[in-house]
Amino acid sequence: MTTPDAATALFHDLTGRTPDGVWSAPGRVNLIGEHTDYNDGFVLPFAIPHRTYAAVGIRDDRRIRVASTFADAPVEFALDELAPLFPTAPGREPAAPEWAAYPLGVAWALQLAATGSGAELRGVDIAISSDVPIGAGLSSSAAIEGATASALNDLWRTGLDRTTLAGIGRRAENEAVGAPTGIMDQMASMLGEPDAALFLDCRTLDAHPVSLGMAGLALLIIDTRVSHAHSTGGYRERRASCEKGAAVMGVPALRDVSVDDLPRARELMDDVTFRRVRHIVTENQRVLDTVRTLRESGARAIGDLLVASHASMRDDFEISVPELDTAVESALDAGALGARMTGGGFGGAAIALVEEGAVQAVSDAVTAAFAASGFAAPHIFTVTPSAGAHREA
Q1: What is the pLDDT of residue 190?
Q2: At 373, is the secondary structure helix, strand, or coil?
Q3: What does the longest C-alpha to C-alpha distance in the chain come to?
Q4: Please, are residues 366 and 222 in contact by the beta-carbon 8 Å criterion?
Q5: Calpha distance 151→132 (Å, rounded)
Q6: Residue 169 in contact with residue 146, Cβ under 8 Å?
Q7: pLDDT on residue 305
Q8: Based on CB atoms within 10 Å of each CB, which residue in 65, 89, 224, 234 is the most buried?
Q9: What is the edge-to-edge ordering of all strands in the sheet holding 217-226?
Q10: What is the pLDDT of residues 175-197, one digit of tens each?
């Protein structure tokens, strides 16, 4: 795994000096609640052990330079030049590579949030390393945002709380990168706790840890290696369908539509819009049911909810791909208690809840199913709920 040492070494190579500190933030897995976040709904993610590290040092000027172990060259701009860099209209060519737009976007959004606060908005050098898989639906972007925001919050003395920093990360992703995501990923990365998922109301931002009760169980991640990106068209189209459905129902967001309202929705909408709405409405209910089941009966009892979630994403929201379906079906056939795709869809990863003693058997079965289907071998590993963003050194 990547350690803070990799970011520190890169910082030294970049600047010839030692950083003022190293901060980190984790990726996340969403146990259940997909595409409900930007509909003001409910989600149940947890932070994972895989992290992004940011070694950061103050400069004597007002410039920001970012480098990464996964990029060929550093990128540098004046802090006062950041706002015009980002694409504000479709088709506009960004001035910075996408990987750099995440930390630069955080710096831009944090400056706006700190205006008039007396914060010390000085130039910085940032060196980033990460072991969060990119494009796997595990929020490598939120990990970059969380590590950067935590570092700048400390070094600039802005004094913002974790929920506000999560909002800054979301603004960076929405406006600097151009990905119309909700706030779930950033909240999970900032507020994650060991051994617990985060039950988040995306309208009020009320967040509460929920123990997963994982004794004797394991959470298996099946990275299909089919890369996805939130800034591409499929995600935008699904969000537009949700907004259309809410408008038809006369509500601010699909959070305000209940399962009992679905017969009326079917009468008012075209089939595609209705199915998009039905996924969100039923997925919100599945999150609530999962939280209740975890509290009453533990993780062994949530398998059917995970399976129903995947079927809804596959059939109603239509964001699965053959590799994800194969991962879920082969894991279930091999004895997984439950499985579903996780993340925004169109690629990425699936999650399977398995007995600890069955991890190898389920992994082997999934790998064999991928080979039989002619797919590239998946990357399969276990995760445990882990701590959110913090300073490492």
Answers
A1: 98
A2: coil
A3: 66
A4: yes
A5: 18
A6: yes
A7: 98
A8: 224
A9: 338-342, 348-355, 217-226, 379-383
A10: 888 888 889 999 999 999 999 99
| pLDDT at site 86 | 65
Q: What's the pLDDT at 92?
A: 58
Query: Which residues are catalytically annotated?
Result: 185
3-state secondary structure of 61: coil
Q: Which one, of 34, 29, 28, lies nearest residue 286 by Cα?
A: 34
Residues paired with 64 in a beta bridge: 77, 124
pLDDT in tens, 63-73: 999 999 999 89
**Total count of residues recorded for the chain:** 393
C-beta neighbour count of 96 within 10 angstroms:
20
DSSP string covering 77-145: EEGGGSGGGS--STTPPPSS-HHHHHHHHHHHHHHHHHTTTT-----EEEEEEE-SPTTSSS-HHHHHH
Q: Report the run of H or E that residue 308 belongs to, with start and end.
A: helix 303-315
Query: Could you tell me the sign of the dihedral formed by the alpha carbons of 90, 93, 95, 97, in that order?
Result: positive
> What is the pLDDT, as a whole number, of residue 231?
47
Give the tokens for residue 365. 């079965």
CA–CA separation, 213 vs 230, rounded Å? 32
Identify the CA nearest to 191 among candidates 181, 182, 199, 202: 199
Average pLDDT, the chain: 93
Domains and CATH numbers, the chain: 4-210 (3.30.230.10), 212-383 (3.30.70.890)
pLDDT in tens, 332-347: 999 999 999 998 889 9
Query: Hey, which bits of the chain come out as E strands?
Result: 21-32, 42-58, 63-68, 75-78, 124-130, 196-201, 207-211, 217-226, 338-342, 348-355, 379-383, 390-391
Interhelix angle 162-171/98-114, nearest 10 degrees: 130
